[in-house]
Inverse folding.
């Protein structure tokens, strides 16, 4: 079974600075997808960024980028130029690539990291 | 607005009761997923439907059941409610089994409080 671990329950950062959220996972799969979701106080789950395990290049989306280390099973999220609106819970999640039984698409989430951006 | 609609937004009910949570997926999406978010367990996958058929089950209790209707909306039924069932219940949708890796679209959730 796959597991996802986020070792930092809470973090804080000053506005405009950079912060990195950690995520490690355990799987015997070779092909899979990894995601970071953001949950602001509105509680809406918002997709921040995704990474295909078969791609070596790290994904980037504007101020958000990942450091994907497949051998180490590590998938950290870097937020540059932090903004007050980045204050939220951040969840790392894992998805298997293929499962003909139909279970493809199920996300396994970490416990989350609560990020506070301070003015 | 994500395009995934969940009703009601809030629900308060007593122990032993039964409730139904409703989800309308984003237009064109065939897969619906239900997740439970509680303080102690985090986000847990409950069940998945694709085009009306159950495709996968996660940590769903026997007291819980779900279905997806021909118009693709889905309902999650929770019965014999216990205090521990208090949680935020999310519905999410994706275009299909082969498109889930693009990431889901989540609804805004139903906050269930059992008293």
């Amino acid at each position: 079974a796959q597991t996802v671990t986020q070792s930092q329950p809470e973090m804080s950062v000053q506005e405009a600075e950079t912060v990195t959220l950690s995520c490690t996972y355990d799987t015997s799969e070779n092909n899979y997808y990894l995601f970071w979701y953001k949950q602001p106080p509105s509680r809406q789950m918002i997709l921040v960024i995704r990474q295909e395990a078969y791609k070596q290049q790290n994904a980037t989306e504007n101020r958000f980028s990942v450091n994907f280390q497949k051998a180490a099973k590590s998938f950290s999220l870097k937020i540059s130029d932090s903004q007050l609106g980045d204050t939220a819970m951040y969840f790392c999640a894992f998805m298997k690539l293929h499962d003909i039984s139909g279970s493809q698409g199920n996300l396994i989430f970490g416990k989350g990291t609560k990020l506070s951006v301070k003015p | 607005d994500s395009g995934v609609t969940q009703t009601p937004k809030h629900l308060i009910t007593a122990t032993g009761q039964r409730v139904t949570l409703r989800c309308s997926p984003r237009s064109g999406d065939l897969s619906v997923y239900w997740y439970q978010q509680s303080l102690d367990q985090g986000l847990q996958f409950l069940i998945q439907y694709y085009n009306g058929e159950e495709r996968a089950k996660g940590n769903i209790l026997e007291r819980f059941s779900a279905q997806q209707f021909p118009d693709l909306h889905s309902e999650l039924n929770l019965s014999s409610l216990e205090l521990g069932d208090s949680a935020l219940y999310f519905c999410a949708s994706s275009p299909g089994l082969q498109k889930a890796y693009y990431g889901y679209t989540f609804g805004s959730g139903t906050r269930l409080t059992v008293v």
Remarks:
- Chain A is about 0% helix and 50% strand.
- Chain A touches chain B at residues 33, 35, 42-47, 50, 52, 91, 95, 97, 101-112 (CB under 8 Å).
- The first strand of chain A starts at residue 3 and ends at 5.
